Amino acid sequence: MMRNTDRRSFIKTTAIAGLGLGFINTTSGLYRTEAGDNGKKIGMIGLDTGHCLAFTQALNDPLAGNKFGGFKVVAAYPNGTDKIEEWKNRIPEFTKEVKSHGVEIVGSIEQLLKKVDVVILTCIDGNKHLEQALPVLKAGKRLFIDKPFAGSLSDAYAIAEAARRYNTPMFSASSLRYIDGAKEIAEGKIGKVTGAEAYSPAHLEPHHPDLFWYGVHGVEILFTIMGTGCKSVKRTFTKGTDMVVGLWENERIGSFRGIREGQGNYGATVFGEKGITVLDKYQGYIPLLEKITTFFSTGIVPVSIEETLEIFAFMQAAEESKLKGGISVDIASVVQKAKSKR
User: Fold this and answer.
1) If we measure between CA atoms, which residue out of 315, 294, 289, 341 comes closest to residue 52?
2) Minimal CA–CA distance to 149: which of 14, 20, 291, 305?
């Protein structure tokens, strides 16, 4: 994840700014989507990241009007990471700040579920997400899981399968998916996308595969542009930089540049049939929160679990490419390995 000082600056700025390979037989159509008596009370799990505060500030802002459909954070369970000391030590600070926005602090996930209608899982540690998500999905509470979706590809599959088993709508996404211009690209502004070069910070954390921790944001930009259908991944790693090149179906090439030294930022250069364009204007968390609250109202997921699983398979393949000296790794091989661990 981003170094502490960099991350604090990022959180402050963004708060102000407002699987094609058949990985799993899960689509939004398999979930309950009827509104029923779904209420507006959000519960939050894991107060160990600045996201929990930024999300709460935006959602509970008295001036928000109907921007988020009336959804408010009303209760939170603060326990998050056990292993990442830098963020574990900030739980009391974040808990105090979230509480100041009228949020009740509870002592367990079970207590939380009795008080809320839907849940945002903000715990910064992807290794905790499977155990935290399971009781929410079992209770039938619509769930948004903040990045990283999981701490391993096998956990990612287990979460997806639990959502299907309990017929509970769930999705995960980075706010970078909604970078300015991405929607227009998807709508054909430059014709068919023939390739893309995305970039973002890619700081490392020893309890997560390298790109799961922070590079996931830039990888999600790449998949937002390219779509699913990546077949193989090859990674070049240095202390300060990652260069990960993916080969998509129809011989399209998409790459991700992970930045650990020098100026870090988010964006992409997109190559299309009718032109080349640059995406480099990030809008903060507001567009993501609008998608989350619309999802809470409708039960219709804005990002398919198939795409999320392929994103994490791409990053796992990049991990294996690094360990094998930079050779090309087939996506299908890491998927098969992840499934065998379940």
Assistant:
1) 289
2) 305
One DSSP character per residue, 87-106 reads HHTTHHHHHHHHHTTTPEE-
pLDDT tens profile 264-282: 999 999 999 999 999 999 9
CB–CB of 18/227 below 8 Å? no
Q: What is the pTM of this model?
A: 0.89
Which of 166, 163, 132 has the alpha carbon at shortest distance from 146?
132
Closest to 38 in 3D by CA, of 303, 300, 298: 298
Structure-block tokens of residue 265: 């930022």
Strand segments, DSSP code E, in the chain are: 41-45, 72-77, 104-105, 118-121, 142-145, 170-172, 193-201, 230-237, 241-248, 253-259, 267-272, 276-279, 329-330
Quick one: DSSP state of residue 302?
S
Phi and psi torsions of 5, nearest 5°: -65, -40
Per residue in 93-145, pLDDT (tens digit) is 999 999 999 999 999 999 999 999 999 999 999 999 999 999 999 999 999 99
